[in-house]
Amino acid sequence: MFMDKWIFVVVLAFAGGTVGFYSGIPLGTLLGSLFAVGGYQFARKNLPTFSFRAKKVMQSIIGGSIGLAFTTETFQAIQSVWKVALLAPIAHLILAVILTWVLHRIFEFDMVTSFCSSAPAGMSEVTIISEEFGAKMPVVIMVHTIRVIAIVVSVPLLVLLF
Protein backbone atom coordinates (compact mmCIF):
# COMPACT_ATOMS: atom_id res chain seq x y z
CA MET A 1 0.00 0.00 0.00
CA PHE A 2 2.77 2.45 0.98
CA MET A 3 4.77 1.69 -2.17
CA ASP A 4 1.63 2.09 -4.28
CA LYS A 5 1.33 5.69 -3.05
CA TRP A 6 4.95 6.43 -4.04
CA ILE A 7 4.35 4.96 -7.47
CA PHE A 8 1.24 7.13 -7.74
CA VAL A 9 3.26 10.24 -6.77
CA VAL A 10 5.83 9.49 -9.49
CA VAL A 11 3.14 8.82 -12.12
CA LEU A 12 1.24 11.97 -11.12
CA ALA A 13 4.43 14.06 -11.23
CA PHE A 14 5.43 12.71 -14.64
CA ALA A 15 1.91 13.18 -16.01
CA GLY A 16 1.76 16.78 -14.78
CA GLY A 17 5.30 17.42 -15.99
CA THR A 18 4.49 16.00 -19.42
CA VAL A 19 1.40 18.18 -19.76
CA GLY A 20 3.47 21.18 -18.63
CA PHE A 21 6.25 20.35 -21.08
CA TYR A 22 3.90 20.09 -24.06
CA SER A 23 2.01 23.22 -23.02
CA GLY A 24 5.05 25.22 -24.06
CA ILE A 25 4.97 27.52 -21.03
CA PRO A 26 8.31 28.40 -19.43
CA LEU A 27 9.20 25.90 -16.69
CA GLY A 28 6.16 23.92 -17.79
CA THR A 29 7.63 20.61 -16.64
CA LEU A 30 8.30 21.93 -13.14
CA LEU A 31 5.01 23.78 -12.82
CA GLY A 32 2.98 20.93 -14.32
CA SER A 33 4.33 18.37 -11.86
CA LEU A 34 4.05 20.86 -8.99
CA PHE A 35 0.38 21.57 -9.71
CA ALA A 36 -0.50 17.93 -10.40
CA VAL A 37 0.97 16.62 -7.16
CA GLY A 38 0.16 19.74 -5.15
CA GLY A 39 -3.42 19.85 -6.39
CA TYR A 40 -3.96 16.19 -5.57
CA GLN A 41 -2.36 16.59 -2.16
CA PHE A 42 -4.53 19.64 -1.47
CA ALA A 43 -7.70 17.75 -2.39
CA ARG A 44 -6.89 14.39 -0.79
CA LYS A 45 -4.11 14.99 1.76
CA ASN A 46 -3.05 11.35 1.63
CA LEU A 47 0.22 11.30 -0.29
CA PRO A 48 3.43 10.42 1.53
CA THR A 49 6.12 13.05 2.08
CA PHE A 50 9.85 12.73 1.58
CA SER A 51 12.08 12.23 4.58
CA PHE A 52 14.78 14.78 5.36
CA ARG A 53 17.39 12.31 4.11
CA ALA A 54 15.54 11.75 0.82
CA LYS A 55 15.32 15.51 0.30
CA LYS A 56 19.10 15.75 0.80
CA VAL A 57 19.62 13.03 -1.84
CA MET A 58 17.40 14.94 -4.29
CA GLN A 59 19.25 18.15 -3.48
CA SER A 60 22.53 16.40 -4.32
CA ILE A 61 21.12 15.25 -7.65
CA ILE A 62 19.88 18.77 -8.46
CA GLY A 63 23.27 20.20 -7.49
CA GLY A 64 25.01 17.66 -9.70
CA SER A 65 22.70 18.51 -12.57
CA ILE A 66 23.54 22.20 -12.21
CA GLY A 67 27.23 21.32 -11.94
CA LEU A 68 27.08 19.58 -15.31
CA ALA A 69 26.36 22.97 -16.90
CA PHE A 70 29.79 24.30 -15.85
CA THR A 71 32.24 24.26 -18.73
CA THR A 72 35.48 25.99 -19.61
CA GLU A 73 33.37 28.70 -21.27
CA THR A 74 31.45 29.20 -18.03
CA PHE A 75 34.61 29.98 -16.13
CA GLN A 76 35.94 32.16 -18.95
CA ALA A 77 32.74 34.23 -18.79
CA ILE A 78 33.57 35.18 -15.19
CA GLN A 79 36.10 37.68 -16.50
CA SER A 80 33.38 39.69 -18.22
CA VAL A 81 30.57 39.34 -15.68
CA TRP A 82 32.28 39.25 -12.28
CA LYS A 83 30.97 42.69 -11.25
CA VAL A 84 27.38 41.71 -12.01
CA ALA A 85 27.96 38.30 -10.39
CA LEU A 86 28.88 40.13 -7.17
CA LEU A 87 26.31 42.92 -7.41
CA ALA A 88 23.22 40.80 -8.20
CA PRO A 89 23.28 38.62 -5.05
CA ILE A 90 24.00 41.65 -2.87
CA ALA A 91 21.02 43.49 -4.38
CA HIS A 92 18.84 40.39 -4.01
CA LEU A 93 19.80 40.04 -0.35
CA ILE A 94 19.11 43.71 0.36
CA LEU A 95 15.67 43.38 -1.22
CA ALA A 96 15.10 40.13 0.74
CA VAL A 97 15.89 41.89 4.02
CA ILE A 98 13.45 44.69 3.15
CA LEU A 99 10.75 42.16 2.22
CA THR A 100 11.50 40.19 5.40
CA TRP A 101 10.84 43.33 7.42
CA VAL A 102 7.56 43.96 5.53
CA LEU A 103 6.36 40.38 6.03
CA HIS A 104 7.26 40.46 9.72
CA ARG A 105 5.98 43.92 10.62
CA ILE A 106 2.98 44.34 8.37
CA PHE A 107 1.80 40.76 7.78
CA GLU A 108 2.98 39.51 11.19
CA PHE A 109 4.93 36.49 9.91
CA ASP A 110 7.53 35.20 12.35
CA MET A 111 11.11 36.20 11.44
CA VAL A 112 12.20 32.77 10.17
CA THR A 113 9.13 32.39 7.96
CA SER A 114 9.54 35.99 6.78
CA PHE A 115 13.15 35.51 5.74
CA CYS A 116 12.59 32.09 4.16
CA SER A 117 9.59 33.47 2.25
CA SER A 118 11.63 36.32 0.82
CA ALA A 119 14.91 34.45 0.24
CA PRO A 120 16.15 34.79 -3.35
CA ALA A 121 16.67 31.10 -4.03
CA GLY A 122 15.09 28.15 -5.77
CA MET A 123 12.05 26.45 -4.27
CA SER A 124 13.80 23.17 -3.54
CA GLU A 125 16.58 24.93 -1.65
CA VAL A 126 14.19 27.23 0.20
CA THR A 127 11.95 24.39 1.34
CA ILE A 128 14.92 22.46 2.71
CA ILE A 129 16.29 25.55 4.51
CA SER A 130 12.80 26.41 5.79
CA GLU A 131 12.33 22.95 7.21
CA GLU A 132 15.76 23.00 8.87
CA PHE A 133 15.07 26.34 10.59
CA GLY A 134 11.45 25.66 11.53
CA ALA A 135 9.66 28.10 9.23
CA LYS A 136 5.96 27.67 8.54
CA MET A 137 6.25 25.48 5.47
CA PRO A 138 2.79 26.08 3.94
CA VAL A 139 3.40 29.85 4.01
CA VAL A 140 6.90 29.61 2.52
CA ILE A 141 5.80 27.17 -0.18
CA MET A 142 2.82 29.32 -1.19
CA VAL A 143 4.84 32.55 -1.31
CA HIS A 144 7.54 30.92 -3.46
CA THR A 145 5.04 29.18 -5.72
CA ILE A 146 3.38 32.51 -6.43
CA ARG A 147 6.83 34.07 -6.96
CA VAL A 148 7.81 31.40 -9.49
CA ILE A 149 4.51 31.72 -11.35
CA ALA A 150 4.80 35.53 -11.42
CA ILE A 151 8.36 35.33 -12.76
CA VAL A 152 7.56 32.65 -15.32
CA VAL A 153 4.65 34.71 -16.63
CA SER A 154 6.18 38.19 -16.44
CA VAL A 155 9.77 37.66 -17.63
CA PRO A 156 8.85 36.42 -21.14
CA LEU A 157 6.39 39.31 -21.46
CA LEU A 158 9.01 41.82 -20.34
CA VAL A 159 11.58 40.34 -22.73
CA LEU A 160 9.12 40.73 -25.60
CA LEU A 161 8.38 44.34 -24.60
CA PHE A 162 12.02 45.37 -24.38
TrEMBL record:
GO terms for cellular component: membrane. Keywords: Membrane, Transmembrane, Transmembrane helix. One of its GO terms (biological process) is regulation of gene expression. The chain crosses the membrane at residues 6-37, 57-78, 84-103, 139-161. InterPro entries: AbrB_dup, AbrB_fam. Pfam families: AbrB. The keyword Transmembrane helix applies. NCBIfam families: Gneg_AbrB_dup. This is AbrB family transcriptional regulator. The lineage of its organism: Bacteria, Bacillati, Bacillota, Bacilli, Bacillales.
